[in-house]
Design brief:
Chain A: GO terms for molecular function: CoA-transferase activity. The complex is a heterodimer of chains A (217) and B (215). Chain A is 17% helix and 26% strand. Chain A has 217 residues and is α/β, with parallel strands linked by helices. Classes of the chains: A alpha/beta (217), B alpha/beta (215).
Chain lengths: 217, 215
């Protein structure tokens, strides 16, 4: 299983029926492919849709039914559409139960940086600042390291996305949760040791005596 | 009479004008107006919109043609030309969180002096802004945005200029329409009065100044 699949499958286990969920672009989008059987969630696209469905069958795409990347999607029964003020009212107003976003860095206090690398890459924050500030639960989906360098650091040196800490970080190596303001190692990926996780992490982690393996298949 | 030709509509827009434009990654953007802006070679435009789409799509065409001096947007990650022009210094880009941008445009059109949002507190987005505490929480005062022209695109317009958007092509359009001193609309279908039921009108005709004739 590749890194992205491990991350997406593990995050999908956080879904509960009835949730309104916003997935960012990149790895987060893949979470929709692994919704567990029997679980029904509403996916929001921040361009104005609740009930985002899979890519439509050939010939069924509508040019005005798209995701936040501008790609054609379908809409599931019960879907609704709205303008951007409503869409961000849902986000800032605490009506989104869970958001899954990519990350460049997360620090020991759970703060996320994911919208710019000064002097290099400035894609813009899009909806990320609103999502991290307003969603009930914020989950970061990212690879544990970038070109061998840890992305989970004592303090972010990239510009922050929000002053609000994230709740859960899922990488291809581990699941980390913010507990009493500190990062705690919750699970390790199959075939990965606690020592390997610690070696790939710069931030200090609380490590329980027993760390279970991610329940993914 | 609101009917106007595409050429005449775009001729109303002077060089240096500010434009608030509907659309999200080109979906719901008045594509024909973008094409005509390029054809007429407008310059030094300020564009206020969610994003700059992709090269060859909607606002992306204005970027490629070098018509834009300043862009106030939430995201440019999918248009490498916008990033290149920003890095080269030929295009000024003001990045605004998406939920803040739509509220600033809404304030501009709705006669409000600004909005208080928690988004951006403790980040680079708070630079130069007033922080106001309300009931123990910190907010940023975000100021209204208005523009000389609003350029919007609907699925349906009736002869009087009532507009109805559909699906995810609504996005910024209703708020943009309110925030332009002069409002120019295009529509996929121009239909008789009554075809759009009153309850389905999303932008009232009274605020649409010009409805561009279809071919």
């Amino acid at each position: 299983m590749n890194a992205q699949t491990i991350i997406a499958k593990r995050i999908a286990l956080e879904l509960r029926s009835g949730m309104l969920v916003n997935l960012g672009i990149g790895i987060p989008t893949l979470v929709a492919n692994y919704v567990p059987d029997g679980i029904q969630v509403y996916f929001q696209s921040e361009n104005g849709l609740i009930g985002t469905g899979p890519v439509p069958e050939e010939g069924f795409a509508h040019p005005k039914l798209t995701d936040a990347g501008g790609k054609a999607v379908s809409a599931l029964p019960g879907a609704c559409t709205f303008d951007s003020a409503v869409s961000f009212g849902l986000i800032r107003g605490g009506h989104v139960d869970m958001t899954v976003l990519g990350g460049l860095q997360v620090d020991a206090a759970g703060l996320l940086a994911n919208w710019m690398i000064p002097g290099k890459m400035v894609p813009g924050m899009g909806g990320a600042m609103d999502l991290v500030t307003g969603a009930k639960r914020v989950v970061v989906a990212m690879q544990h390291t970038a070109k061998g360098k840890p992305k989970i650091v004592p303090k972010c040196n990239l510009p922050l996305t929000s002053a609000r800490p994230v709740d859960l970080i899922v990488t291809e190596m581990a699941v980390l949760a913010l507990s009493d303001g500190r990062l705690k190692l919750m699970e390790i990926a199959p075939g990965v040791s606690v020592e390997q996780v610690l070696a790939a992490t710069e931030a200090e982690l609380e490590v329980p005596a027993d760390v279970p393996v991610m329940p993914i298949r | 009479m609101k009917r106007i030709s595409l050429e005449d509509a775009v001729a109303l827009i002077p060089n240096g004008a500010s434009l608030v434009i509907g659309g999200f990654m080109g979906v719901g953007t008045p594509e024909r107006i973008c094409d005509e802006l390029v054809r007429q070679g407008k310059r030094d435009l300020t564009v206020i919109a969610n994003d700059t789409a992709l090269p060859g799509v909607g606002i992306g065409k204005l970027i490629t043609a070098g018509l834009v001096r300043k862009a106030i947007v939430s995201h440019i990650g999918l248009n490498p030309e916008t990033q290149q022009q920003k890095i080269a210094g030929t295009l000024e880009v003001e990045l605004v969180p998406q939920g803040t941008l739509i509220e600033r445009i809404r304030c501009g059109g709705y006669g409000l002096g600004g909005v208080l949002t928690p988004t951006g507190v403790g980040t680079l987005a708070e630079e130069g802004k007033r922080k106001i505490e309300v009931e123990g929480s910190e907010y940023l005062l975000e100021t209204p945005i208005k523009a000389d022209f609003a350029l919007v695109h609907a699925m349906f317009a009736d002869y009087t200029g009532n507009l109805r958007y559909v699906l995810t092509a609504r996005n910024f359009n209703p708020m943009a329409a309110m925030a332009g001193a002069t409002v120019i609309a295009t529509a996929d279908h121009i239909v008789p009065v009554g075809v759009i039921p009153p309850d389905d009108v999303m932008t009232p005709a009274v605020i649409v100044d010009h409805l561009v004739a279809n071919l």
